[in-house]
Design goal:
By secondary structure, this protein is mainly α. The chain contains seven helices and two strands; from the N terminus they run αααααββαα. It has a two-stranded antiparallel ribbon. The termini are far apart.
């Protein structure tokens, strides 16, 4: 029984690793993961609530359908970026970062925190972006299928739109952070 629980714990650990980006510990990370996406979600809500109806946002040809059409293309790009970073042939990206973020990992059955290198950080980041884009697309299609032909209160629809936009803005913010690291930090040896 105990070995079975360990086995399930390991399987759960492995399947949730793509979202481990959200568990990285660093004093500034909450700004990227929570503050900026919440701020952008609030702005989106105010603008959409002021200038659009819920049907124009969630309808079959609405804003979410168009955004999801764009997001559907992203997993392939994120996986390509992940593969490029994982195999990038520069040893300086394997040095621990200054003021390094930390992430909890399991190694040989033991859990512990490790200081992150740029390679590890970018790999965790692009794994998360791949998973987030897949979850947004699947979530959109499942909620659209459920909503089709079913009356759902506009308040619940707006709540789902806010959740969608929060994850969307979190993904966009993390993408911009990843592009910053790929475009600038990766080539700055001591930053």
């Amino acid at each position: 029984m105990i070995s079975r629980l360990k086995e399930f714990k390991l399987i759960f650990y492995q399947l949730t690793r793509p979202v481990s980006y959200l568990r990285i510990q660093h004093e500034d990370k909450w700004i990227y993961d929570w503050l900026i996406p919440i701020f952008l979600t609030c702005i989106s809500w105010v603008i959409l609530g002021q200038f659009s109806s819920i049907d124009h946002v969630t309808g079959s040809d609405g804003l979410l359908a168009r955004i999801t059409g764009f997001i559907e293309n992203l997993p392939g790009f994120f996986i390509a970026a992940l593969a490029a970073v994982a195999t990038f042939n520069r040893h300086d990206i394997d040095r621990v970062m200054k003021n390094p973020p930390k992430v909890k990992i399991m190694y040989q059955g033991n859990a512990g925190f490790v200081d992150m290198t740029r390679r590890r950080f970018l790999c965790v980041l692009f794994s998360y972006l791949t998973a987030a884009s897949i979850f947004l697309v699947i979530g959109y299609y499942i909620s659209s299928a459920i909503a089709e032909g079913t009356y759902i209160d506009p308040e619940i629809r707006w709540l789902l739109v806010l959740v969608y936009f929060f994850i969307f803005w979190q993904m966009i913010t993390a993408t911009l952070l990843g592009l910053f690291y790929l475009g600038e930090r990766l080539h700055t040896p001591d930053a």
